[in-house]
Amino acid sequence: MKLKSIIYSLTTVLLASCVGENLVFSGPDSANNLTFDRRLLSVAFDESPQIVLRNNGEVLDLENGDFNVLFSSSDTSFLQIDQTGKITIKEAGIGETVDVSVSFAPKAETEIDDSEVPEPITDDITIGAVTISEAEARGIDNIDEIVANGYEPKISINENFREIDINTTNQLKLTAIFQGIKREVIENTVFNWNSSNTDVLTISNDGVITPISLGETTISVSTEFEGETFDFEKNLIVGGETAEEEPEEEPQPTKEVLAFGDLQTNSQYVVNGEFEIFTENGKSFITLSDDFDTRNGRSQVPDLTIYLSNSTTSNGGDAQLIAAPETGLATFGAQTFEIPDDININDFQNVLLFCRRFGVRVGFGVITR
User: Fold this and answer.
1) Both ends of the chain: CA-CA distance in Å?
2) Quick check: 11 and 33 in contact, CB under 8 A?
3) CA pair distance 152, 166, nearest whole angstrom
4) Contact in structure between 239 and 165 (CB atoms under 8 Å)
5) What is 154-244's CATH number?
6) Does the structural domain 6-128 have CATH classification 2.60.40.1080?
7) Common-topology check for domains 6-128 and 154-244
């Protein structure tokens, strides 16, 4: 699922090209970008998210402006949305997909004709047992099952030994952990422990093991949660020595996508491509797609730089420099740059392409998380 972006005009914007020419875009052809700030595959029935509208990355003031902003739901029996964008969901709607829309109407005191009214935006949201974003959904195969049923609650045993020495004088104790549908640890869980062969081994209500004789047994642990019984089993051998299970091979660090977006122009230069912000091996990076290009025919942007910014037009304020010619930034093609550890990407709303030599913007991309 992808949110739909509508190109339209709310205000007159003055765009300066990298060579000093001023291009004025006004009316319905203005290069403004209105989006929802959420990319959600599903929303949990027990959450009440709020949809926020952004224009070129900036949060819109819904009260002050030329338009009345009207939110609506295609099925209010399952999903309701008020005029601030706050969503209320009914549990009975799990598995249902509802369209959430926003439309615009000129205020009575404004002089705006029909051609200047932005088109409505619609996004479909599935009601689920858990909230899943587009970024989280990458690499998940059983999306429909997870949306409908959540992550399966489960018990696990922390200790990894499989064989104990009958002559041990050390107290051996098993501990269990219970995780709910959202993989959160459920505290104060009461566990029931049992040994299938008490002639070999017994276990107390606290998980303390007492070996009796040589042999094998199955240890089971169970708990009750919301009217259901959940259990877990572990085989144990009582022998002449305690054997540790072979440690599992440590998983290799995996890439985690934090944010992404499309790049677009706000200058005379044609800007194409996408960006992705991700973490890997404890470091953060920004990568540009294969079709990234800021050239206009044969013309190259001089001294192209990339910033993280809260403005689509300025690298002032708290904007942070991410890439420049001296760090290997090219005007086209796939490339990846490390983001310094002291930069928190959650503090920024946009990726800004900037012409440092002339001090003007070339293009931007709204950061979607």
Assistant:
1) 14
2) no
3) 36
4) yes
5) 2.60.40.1080
6) yes
7) yes
Q: Answer yes or no: is pLDDT of 7 > 80.
A: no
Q: Which of 12, 98, 8 is nearest to 51 (CA)?
A: 98
Which region among 50-64, 165-179, 268-282, 340-354 has the lowest average model confidence (pLDDT)?
Answer: 50-64
Write the CB contacts of 267 (distance below 8 Å, at least 6 apart in sequence).
15, 16, 17, 18, 23, 360, 361, 362, 363
Query: Which pair of tokens denotes residue 54?
Result: 């952004």
Beta partners for residue 306, in sequence order = 323, 353
H helices present in the chain, as ranges = 134-137, 143-149
Region 57-79 average pLDDT: 81
Instruction: Look at residues 173, 178, 198, 175 and name the one whose alpha carbon lies nearest to residue 188.
Output: 178
Burial of 303 (0-12, 13-18, 19+ CB in 10 A): middle
22 vs 265: CA distance, rounded Å = 14
Question: What residue segments make up the domains of the chain, in order of their start?
Answer: 6-128, 154-244, 256-366
Measure Cα distances from 211 to 59, 79, 176, 235 in Å. 65, 57, 19, 14
pTM beyond 0.70, yes or no: no
Chain Cα centroid distance, residue 64: 30
List the one residue out of 340, 360, 274, 346 whose CA is nearest residue 310: 346
